[in-house]
Specification:
With 71 residues, the protein is an all-alpha fold. It is built from four helices and no strands.
């Protein structure tokens, strides 16, 4: 059984303090192909930034920048 290296938070490693809902290219990294929000286990984000990503994705969906579901 191999031990996988721990994933690092994208936002902590790039020193990004605020997750902007208008930055759709960055937010798409944290969505599945079916437009679901990926968990921190898959993306490696820390809990603080995972909460920020979730809020930003929901705001972007509400503003029609991102889809609610993929077709």
């Amino acid at each position: 059984m191999q031990v996988q290296p721990k994933k690092t938070c994208f936002f902590c490693s790039n020193k990004i303090n605020v997750v902007d809902y208008k930055d759709t290219q960055t937010l798409r990294r944290f969505m599945s192909p079916h437009a679901k929000i990926l968990s921190h286990n898959k993306t490696g984000t820390c809990p603080k930034h995972q909460r920020m990503v979730t809020v930003a994705l929901k705001r972007a969906r509400h503003m029609a920048l991102l889809p609610f579901i993929a077709s």
